[in-house]
Each structure stands twice: as C-alpha cells, then as structure tokens.
Specification:
The chain has 23 helices and 28 strands. It is α/β, with parallel strands linked by helices and 733 residues long. It folds into four domains: 108 residues, no CATH class; 108 residues, ATP-grasp fold, B domain (D-amino Acid Aminotransferase, Chain A, domain 1, 2-Layer Sandwich), CATH 3.30.470.20; 233 residues, UDP-N-acetylmuramoyl-L-alanine:D-glutamate ligase, CATH 3.40.1190; 151 residues, Mur ligase, C-terminal domain (Protein-Tyrosine Phosphatase, Chain A). The strands form five sheets. An eleven-stranded mixed beta sheet has the order 15-14-13-16-12-17-18-19-20-21-22, with helices on both faces. It has a six-stranded mixed beta sheet with strand order 23-24-28-25-26-27, with helices on both faces. The protein has a five-stranded antiparallel beta sheet with strand order 9-8-7-10-11. A hairpin with a 2-residue loop joins strand 13 and strand 14. The longest helix is centred in the last third of the chain and has 20 residues.
C-alpha cells in the first residue's frame, strides 16, 4: 500500500468503522471480529486493520487462520501487510474483498461476499483433516497437502475420498499417502474394490455369516443406530440420532465387538467403522431389524466424533490412533536430505553428493536441472530443482535419502517442500539472474540462497572464497559448520570463523596435495590427484565443487572410505554430469561441452582452457540467455576475452524474445572493445549452423569448447560420440 500521496486518509481507522461499512452493505459475519491492539499512526493502523479484515473474512468461510502483521518499507511511503492463508485462492480473494471494502469500491456487496463465502468454504479443511495435521505437527512428522498450491494440476495421486484431505505423510521409504482416513499407500486392489462397492462389502458380510440389518441407520426416527470404530486396536462407540454421543464400551455386548474384529481380520485396514442397528447394544443382536448395516474403510472421523466431549477429545484421540497405526511411537519418518544452492556448480555438486550417498548405501533420490531421479533411475525429465521436483523425490518409496538442488527463483516464489534438511551448502553467489523489480542486488540474492541453509540442522558447508557465502555464517543454526577453500590454509580459515567451525582445505601430505578436513584433528580425505573431476588440475573450480560435496557427505556422517571411492570414480562425462565440462577425446581435436551461461561460468571455463595443455588453438563457441540484460551478456564476453584464439558468437535456439542476431552482436562488439582482433571473431547467429561451423573450423590438436543450452546437450553428445566411433573405425581400417 503506497501512502506517499496520502490517498487512504479517509479509510476506516477502527474496527467499528469496518463493522459499520459491512452493516451498510448488509453483510453479517459468522465469527466475531477479534479486536487487537492496532498500531499507532494512521497508515500503520490502516494497513493492520485491512490485514485483520482479510483474516476475518477467511475465518467466516471456515478457514482456521489468525496471523497478520504490517510494516513500513524504509525510505518510502509504502506499508506491507502480511496475511496468513490456508488456501491460496481463498486468501487472495479475501484480501481483494477487504481492499474493495476499504476503498469503498462498487464490487463489494452482500451478493459478492456470499459468493466468496460459498467458494472459500469449499477450500476449508474438515475437522478431521485439521486434527490430523495438528497431530502431525505435534509429532514432528513431515507432511504435504496435495490439494494446496502448487500441487493441483501438477500431481494426480488421490481417489477423491475427502475434499482437501489428500496428505502425503513422511518422506521417501517412510512415506504414506492418506486421503481423508483412507491410507492409499497401504491398500491393495481388493481393499480399494471393497472401498468403492457396497455390493462387495455386503458379500463379505454374508461370507462371514454376519446378520444384516434391513434398513440403514440413517433412517428417520431410527434411534438404535450406532457405529463401532476400530483404529490401531482401540474402540470408539458412537450412538447416532438427535443426541449423538459416545457410548461407554462396557455397555456394548461382546458379540458386537467380535463382529467388528471379524471384519477387521478380513480387511486388515484401518480405521474400520462398522455401522450397526440394535435396539439395545448391551444385548446380542436379535430380531429381523438388528444387525450390520455396512462398514466403512474411510470413516469421516469429524462426522462421527467432532464436538463430542472428552479429555482428550474423541476426535483428537481417534486421529492420534490413526497416525500411531501408520507411524508407531519412535518410528522413522524422515530420510537424510542434502540441499545444494549457489550460482554455479549446483548440478555437478548435487551429482557428486548423490554418488557419495549411493556409495554409502543411502539409496539417494536426486533433483537437479537435468531431471528427477530415484535410486539412479530417471523418473521425470527437465529442470525440477524447485518445490514440485523436491516433493516428487521426497514422496518416492524407493528413496532412502534425497539430494535436492535448489535455484533462487524456486525458493523465492514457491518456498520449500521440506521443513528442514540435514546438510546444505552454498557454493557461491554472483550477479547472475538479477532483475529490476525482482531480485535487484547480489545481497538480496544471498539472503534468498541463505534461506535454504537456515533449514539445515546437522551441518552447513560454506565456500570461504566467496564473500557473500562467507557472510552467511552468523545467520546459521546448524549443529556444525564447515568452511572450505581451495586457496586458503587452515590458519586463515580458523581466523574467519568461530572456534568450533570445521575447515576443509588443500594440504601437502607425503609429496602430494590432499583434501583435508580439520575436525579436532586432521582428517585426510583423498589426494587431489585421485579426483578425476579436476581433469588433472585444469578444472580448478571443480575442486571447489568436490570439496563442497565432500564436506556435505562428511557432515552427513558418510564414512571417509565411501567418500573416497565415490569421488575417485566421478568423472566429468556425459553419463555422470551431462553438459558440465564433458571432454571428448578420440577426435582429430579435443572437444568440451559445457553449460557456462553467465559471466562467472565463462570465466571459469576460460581458466580451464588456459590450464589445459593444447598444442593447437583454443576455440570457443558461446552464447548467452536472451533473458539476461545487455550488461550481463557483455560481461560474459569480457570474461572470455584474451583466453582463446578464435571466438564464434551465436544465439541459443530459444532467443527469449530477442532477434537471433542480437546476443551474438553484443558478444562481437564487446570482444572488439576488449582488443580481440577482428579476424579471431566470427558471428553465426543460427544455433545449428554455428555448431557445424565450429566443428569444421577445428583443426588437428585444437581444443574446441562449445557452450550449449540444456536442450542441445543430447543431440551434440550423440554427434560427437558418432565422430569418435568413426575415428576408431578409420584407425582400425
């Protein structure tokens, strides 16, 4: 809300003002407008009152929300109001209605408010689901509400038993899927058939020789109807009718318990509710009208037990028993989670950690820009390194741990699919992805990336060679912090951090450099020469990625021998990490595929090319995302200038709204401004023609580096592999 022009001075300033405006529009709230101390100052008071009104509208529609606050944006006339919501559409509509009411808009009317209430009430949680969620929170069991944003339209997992009641409980191998009270993940086809067919249930009752009642207990005037509910070995008896109440279990005849146990023995699925008709539940079932009406494998505990007296409340007690059936006390519900963020190196580091976790026997799932993987198998293609991808891996029953790459936009827009992780790392923060009106500074970017690390409980690995990642240190609450650096020694790292911080560094041992961790003593991990990912030391930045992965694995208590074995086998091949410094030998020239798409990535690639022993020329084909600003694109060209003998400037296949010539022309002009000779530069805007040209330009003993977009990796890899095979055929022929 922008108050710089003082446009809201005539708006409501008290609760009475709001109630008066509602009354004028013939709107009556079903809940009290809970008064609270409003802040001083007309603008703050207005913002707080508006937020409280939006909360009250949601409460009127049955949503259990209560939190709101407001605060000014320093140096401006803007106040920001935060409003709690349970359902996105209901919350946004409530805010819109409140704004229209406060601005005396014509869209606010009794009819509009009634329409909102009808729509929003459809999104409210049932008493049963609310009770289940409260117990999940109390027991610290992770859960996801699959009928809340961002899941609708993204996943199809339920059977529609209870509106807004589809919950994913636990993580990975400990997952369960609950729809209302029906546990989908524990139901076989027979149980699902019984669930959906009254005829099949009646047939089972006949097979068990259970007497059947003629009329359903819901019949008008039927006061002999009762339900016997069995969950996790505990019974609840409910009398139906005008005076619904719990029946003391000692007033129920043993035969009724035996019938319920007999059905339970057949279905072995809980909760089980058996509906009886009996004139006197303390006596054996007798008479033509007495017997079992039906049984339910997904009883609505709210309908049966809500508002019944008891301590604890019967609804809470029943929901607690349901969750104890799924997760007994002290049962494992979480899997180890490693989270990775940063500007560059996220995917490579995530894949390294995944290999280490696999070597350590943790059966990892992986989410990265290359796709979603469960126990080494691709289950979804494309970049899923945000909420939906994380949730997908965390819901896979085949997964025993999770490695989750997280990019800044996913964190800022969608938030988290997990309340905490075990270990996390931030590799670096640079000025890539900044945009006016969104994330405008690298400091803001660092805060967003830091939010991931703030969820780590066991350990965080921080790159001490990046000032912005190092600056995150005071904000972290993990049990252990490890600073890693490929250039600083243990003494310098110790001066940068508190006494109890671990350090990871390079130290000479027995004539060669080793990766060493300082943790109440030196812990040698692996010789640097045993890390193929560094390509003989040329890919120095991959040493940083490897150190981050090693630190995360160490903090996750993976044994050193498993870390060493995994890292010694990890190569920068298309199979291990597609499009990340993939080197192809066996050609007339050396070729490298890479994803460098920002200034820091190109700088690292240029340093790599300079360290490689090349007898011929160094050639670079590069482009940049059209979504980046011109200055960022120019910085990419500056990062490459002077490091190569030939530059081919092109466009990505997806130009992001630019003309195909625009990005390569920026590169070309910047290279010329950096005194790169004109004869060393060529512009071929067409993406495919540029690949053809650079491969034809490369001569014997040259090194050609191709930076590609993700969608080009597989095609160019196939082409280079075919060239390798043809070369071997020619050599043997």
């Amino acid at each position: 809300m922008d108050f710089s022009a003082d446009t809201h001075s005539t708006g409501p300033q008290t609760i009475e003002d709001v109630l008066d405006q509602l009354q004028q529009r013939d709107v009556h709230l079903a809940v009290p407008f809970r008064g609270s101390d409003l802040p001083d100052g007309p603008h703050a008071r207005y913002a707080a009152l508006l937020a409280q009104t939006a909360v009250t509208f949601q409460q009127h529609a049955g949503h259990k929300v209560s939190f709101f606050t407001e605060f000014p944006e320093p140096g401006t006339g803007v106040h920001i109001a935060l409003v709690e919501y349970d359902d996105t559409a209901s919350g946004m509509s409530a805010v819109g209605l409140a704004i229209d009411l406060f601005l005396r808009g014509t869209n606010f009317s009794a009819a509009a408010f009634k329409s909102y209430t009808e729509r929003a009430s459809q999104g409210a949680l049932s008493a049963e689901t609310r009770a289940i969620i409260e117990i999940l929170q109390e027991r610290d069991i992770p859960y996801l509400q699959l009928e809340r944003d961002p899941f609708p339209g993204q996943v199809v997992m339920g059977s529609g038993i209870r509106r807004n009641g589809l919950l994913h409980l636990g993580q990975g191998r400990y997952s369960e899927l609950l729809d209302g009270t029906f546990c989908i993940s524990r139901s076989d086809p027979r149980i699902k058939a019984l669930m959906g067919s009254s005829r099949r249930r009646a047939e089972l009752l006949r097979q068990l020789r259970i007497p059947a009642a003629r009329d359903p207990f819901q019949a008008p005037g039927n006061h002999g109807a009762l339900s016997l509910l069995l969950i996790n070995g505990e019974f609840f008896a409910v009398r139906h009718g005008p005076e619904r109440c719990l029946i003391p279990l000692n007033e129920i005849h043993d035969s009724i318990f035996e019938i319920t146990r007999g059905i339970a023995e057949q279905v072995r699925h809980f909760p089980l509710s058996v509906e009886f008709r009996a004139r006197d539940a303390s006596l054996p079932l007798s008479g033509d009208d007495a017997g079992v009406v039906d049984f339910s494998l997904a009883p609505d505990l709210g309908v049966l037990l809500a508002d019944l007296p008891g301590d604890p409340a019967p609804l809470e007690q029943a929901c607690r028993q349901l969750l104890l059936w799924l997760f007994p006390e002290d049962a494992q519900t979480r899997i180890p989670i490693a989270a990775v963020t940063g500007t560059n190196g996220k995917t490579t580091t995530s894949r390294m950690i995944t290999e280490i976790f696999a070597e350590g026997g943790l059966k990892p799932g992986l989410v990265c820009t290359d796709g979603t993987f469960a126990d080494g198998k691709l289950i979804a293609e494309g970049d899923r390194s945000a909420f939906i991808g994380h949730a997908r891996v965390l819901s896979e029953k085949t997964v025993g741990s999770a490695v989750l790459e997280a990019h800044h936009r996913g964190l800022a827009v969608r938030g988290f699919a997990f309340d905490r992780c075990d270990v996390a790392t931030c590799l670096n923060v640079t000025n890539d992805h900044l945009k006016k009106g969104e994330i405008e500074t690298v400091e803001q970017m660092a805060v967003i990336k830091r939010s991931l690390l703030e969820r780590a409980t066991e350990g965080v690995a921080l790159n001490a060679d990046n000032a912005l990642t190092l600056g995150m240190l005071p904000h972290l609450g993990a049990a252990r912090i490890c600073l890693f650096s490929s250039s600083r020694g243990p003494g310098e790292l110790a001066r940068l951090s508190p006494d109890d911080t671990l350090a990871c560094f390079i130290e000479p041992l027995e004539g060669q450099d080793w990766v060493v961790i300082e943790d109440a003593g030196r812990v040698p991990v692996t010789p640097v020469s045993d890390l193929p990912c560094t390509m003989g030391g040329a890919a120095r930045y991959n040493l940083e990625n490897a150190m981050a992965a090693i630190c995360c694995a160490y903090l996750a208590q993976i044994p050193i021998p498993a870390i060493r074995r995994a890292m010694s086998a990890f190569r920068m091949s298309y199979e291990h990490t597609p499009g990340r410094l993939n080197y192809y030998s066996g050609l007339p020239f050396g070729a490298v595929l890479d994803f460098a798409h920002n200034p820091d990535g190109v700088r690292r690639l240029a340093e790599f090319a300079g360290r490689m022993e090349v007898k011929g020329r160094r050639l670079l084909m590069f482009s940049g995302p059209g979504s980046r600003g011109n200055e960022v694109l120019a910085d990419m060209a500056r990062s490459a200038a002077g490091s190569f003998d030939f530059y081919l400037c092109r466009s990505y296949p997806n130009t992001r709204g630019r003309s195909p010539e625009e990005v390569p022309r920026i590169f070309e002009q910047t290279l010329l401004d950096m005194d790169v000779p004109d004869e060393q530069i060529k512009t071929v805007p067409d993406a495919e023609q540029a690949i053809d040209h650079i491969l034809s330009e490369a001569g014997p003993a040259d090194l050609v580096i191709l930076t590609l977009s993700r969608r080009e990796f597989a095609r160019v890899h196939t082409r280079l592999t075919a060239m390798q095979q043809q070369g071997r055929v020619n050599a043997t022929g």
